[in-house]
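Researcher: Next entry in the queue.
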Amino acid sequence: MSVILIRVKLVVILLLCLPLISIGQNTTLEECLRIAGENNLSVKQAKSALLSSQYNLKAEKKSYLPKVDLLSSYTYLSSPLEVNLQTVRDGIVEGSSRQSVSAANEVFKEIIGSELPQAAQERIYGLSKTIIGSVYPNYNPSLSRQSYFVAGLGVRQPIFLGRKLDAAGNLAQSLVTTAEISVDLINKEVDFVIAAQYLRILHLNTLYVKQQLMVDALIRNNNYAQELVKNQILAPYQKSWTNVMLTQAISQLNNIKLDQQNAHLELNKVLGVPLDSGIVITDTLKYAIIAPSNPEGDYWASNPIYRLADSKVSYAKTAEKISKSFSLPNIFAVGNYNLYRRDLPLLVPDWFVGVELQWTLFNGQTRKRTLAARQLIEETKLAGENAKLEIEVLSAVARNKMISIQNEVASLDYARKEAQTTTRLIRERMENQLSSPKDVNDALLVEIEIEKGYQLAVFGYYLAAAEYFNSLGKPQQITQYIK
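Model: Structure for this entry, 483 residues:
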């Protein structure tokens, strides 16, 4: 036995043993979907965003509660405060002079019984004005302190904010709804990617099994050619040709094994598990006709793609309400309780309460913002219609693709059976020395290529089915047909 043949047999034995190691440990597609739901990073990120929006909604629901602040300030002035006496000088002098005349007139009336003569009143008025004017300060006295510290508790309770609080709560609720739909959408897309990757692994497993059968047949043909050469029935160069074919077949078998490893790495990444995790999938892809029922009614309404687009309409309507609310007044109940005010030069009460009105009478941006919000509503409605149309097209295309591939699978199935029969007949002729090992190798090569085409069509058929179920928003349904 040649060295090449010994090496070939060792490689084949090792490759044949690999699938046997994992028998009984097969991971189903349902299990893969469950693992991804718990570990996929995109799903975790979407759930984290949902939790954040839920916290924000809880915060908005408490916006009606009063706001209590600790207010304090420290102020240092460049110079002490001054009392401006000059602005009231004339009033004080005039008032004091008139008061002096009035007092003297009352005293005189009590004693004499009549008022002072007019001339006496004028003299008293002029004398008082001169005396008071001479002693009135001609400067502004200043206070001694230049710095002041005050502290207190301030309360602000919304009474009416032009429906701003309701709109803000509705906006937060819209964000929660959008985040929930986003979680469903990402779950759907992840499930579809996993289903497609799982089908790819099953396809590679099938190719691996078929390629192994090819290698086994080439080994038997190589051994038969070696016996013919030994008996001097076959020329040595024809034996070398069988070695070449066998080496190429083993190389292709190794390449399929590498593709399987890469497919498992990609699957582990989507599942969110370590790349070296032992997710074992040993099943092969077996063809069976899938007959999905025609979608009825508004089937697209349950698809997260449409639901996400539709949720943005509610968001846009809420944005319009918020924009309109900016033109309405805000009314607050306010109050303050002073905790520390000893340094103030003026006496301030311990507490006060009141009502505050805030009303923007003119803002050039309000009307434009309202128009922009209305336009956003129209845009989101068009986006919903576009999403609906896209889902309908995807569904119809996937169904048509399934029908088309189904016909192709039937044709290739007939061709591969004919190729198997042809290979068997040529092998029988070779055993009767009516054909050569090269003829058998050529027939095997044609047979395996047709087999690969058939398996590729089967893979495409299942992939089209997965696309169809995904267009319905239910990619998990493909698990019913992969057993």
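Model: The longest strand covers residues 147-160.
Researcher: Noted, moving on.
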